[in-house]
Amino acid sequence: MSYPTTLGLIGGGGGASFSLTGENNGAGLEKIGVWVGEWQVKAVKVWLSDGRSQTFGNPDGPYQEYMFKPGECFTSLSLWGNGAGTRLGAIKFKTSESREFFAKMTSWGLKQEYPMDVGSGYCLGVVGRAGADIDSMGFMFLNAVQSTVLTNVNYPTINQLIPKVTVEEIKSLTYKNSSSITQKQTIETSKTITTKSLWSVTLSLMATFSMEWRHSHAKEMTGEQVFHYSFS
Fold first, then answer.
1. Could you read off the pLDDT of 154-197 as tens digits, one per residue?
2. Domains, the chain, ranges and CATH?
3. C-alpha angle 44/8/115, rounded to 5°?
4. pTM reported for the whole predicted model
5. Using only C-alpha atoms, what is the Rg of the chain?
6. Which helix (H) or strand (E) holds 79?
7. Cα–Cα distance between 224 and 75 in angstroms, integer?
8. Which of 122, 197, 212, 218 has the most crowded Cβ, counting Cβ within 10 A?
């Protein structure tokens, strides 16, 4: 079974569990502050885009923070334990703005690096365990969107819309009836038109619209239209 988020925890098993994420409302990580000690990450403060913020652990020691720009996402994340299996030891990440953040314990050397899966790069917040220090912690990410399908789309007022299009003659025929007998002349043609539009959002969204109509003066009209949306 696939899940919409990805999360990996590094550190020990002590302390009490904590969580501050936008998993339920889509809020993202806006700012993070980290205090470090000689052999551990002492505390972490997290700000989310919905206005919530919270501090985990006891703030003490050297401090550094990182403010994310609008639309800025993670491109990589690595976490380290403290080498004794009891605490979080370091946090390092890079972003889509080619910026980097690196906070690590000041005395003990780093040992095993754990590269984490950042999914789509959109961070929803943090989850972990803490007491006086950060025992363990991980970042929750939204997984990459594979596809999106719209079904049962209803346009109740579409017949009231006036298309803003340029009129183009695609076929014409002149016929003169020189007799007194009623005659019928039919002209039929078809043309396929495909348009593409691209909008810039947090994730890229491509919409493709294809329409084909057949029309004749015998009051016969058939048509087909297809919509396709995809995220990447």
1. 877 777 777 777 767 666 777 777 787 887 777 777 777 766 66
2. 5-142 (2.100.10.30), 158-231 (no CATH)
3. 90
4. 0.65
5. 30
6. strand 74-81
7. 42
8. 122
